[in-house]
Amino acid sequence: MSLLFRSDAGVRLFRSLLPLFQEDPLVKSTLVPETIGRSEGKPNWWKAAVIYQIYVPSFKDTNGDGYGDLRGVIEKLGYLKELGINIIWLSPIFDSPMYDMGYDIADYYKVNPVFGSMEDVDDLLRQAHKMGLRVVLDIAMNHTSVEHSWFKKTLEAFQAQGGSHKVELAKKAIASKGRDAARIPIPWDRSQETSGGFTVGAAKPWLPMHPNFTEFCTESQRRNPASIWMFYRDLISLRKQHKALVYGAYQLVDPQHESVYAYTRTDGHETYFVVLNFTDDLVEWDTPVEHRGVWSVVISNFGRATLDQELGAKIELGPFDGIIFRRESG
Ligand SMILES: [Ca+2]
């Protein structure tokens, strides 16, 4: 602990949070220090888990202020469960001036009122746990907001030396370098009136919706067997069914190749061979000799038939093609 926290305040904060974890029956048996890092023979629960990170302001607004909130997360727990995830990871929900997406925390003991209240956090935990979902809160303890009392004290000392101008410039820089430019609020349905169901009534989302949201909303995705949503749901399900995909020995294949990322995972009974083209070009990839022969196609993102396939000297991969092959070991 002394390595992580060099200030008394940091140590006090960590000590105050620790009982929260230890008292939670879901994590009590799994998060105690002696289990962390032990993997030989006894797999850690989180290794097989699938985590879904939620950026709360863009997830779902329930009170019509245009910003996603904790009640919105509670409302969509069923959706997350359906997708097959095990853990939801919330972007910071603590009190913050939001110059850095909430990672600039002003008070670690308060929930940002934009997102809700402590009661909402309790309710979220209760309802998530009821569904067997775990909740991870993102707490950035190694830096704080310029509005945190620790920073303000430093600032006062700095200002006494005539440095206030520089601090204002730094604040502006942080605000302009926010990470939100590439993000959009999640469209849940086709409704134009409620901005794709992200918000309620005619409220305006804090960021503009994607122009094609009716096509890409979760409702459309869940009705389309060829959608990315369906593909991810199938991938998650596959990963849960086949332990070798999680625990099997990992071996990179052709690590020097510039376009293809390929690896095998094998547990002694079966081998999975994952081949991914990370470019938008057609790639003719030389199949490594030891991986030639007959494989079953388990899943692919471009609808290859899930049949046996004989891999010859070359594999032709389309743009952003991804395939998982499987065969018995031995
Ligand atoms: Ca809201």
Automatic annotation (TrEMBL):
Any one GO MF annotation of this record: alpha-amylase activity
SMART domains: Aamy
GO BP annotation list: oligosaccharide catabolic process
This protein's UniProt keywords: Glycosidase, Hydrolase
Pfam family, one: Alpha-amylase
InterPro entries, per the entry: GH (IPR017853), GH13_cat_dom (IPR006047), Glyco_hydro_b (IPR013780), Malt_amylase-like_C (IPR032091)
Domain Glycosyl hydrolase family 13 catalytic: from-to ranges: 53-327
SUPFAM superfamilies: (Trans)glycosidases (SSF51445), Glycosyl hydrolase domain (SSF51011)
Record carries keyword Hydrolase: yes
Top-level taxon of origin: Eukaryota
Family under the similarity heading: Belongs to the glycosyl hydrolase 13 family.
Annotated protein name in UniProt: Glycosyl hydrolase family 13 catalytic domain-containing protein
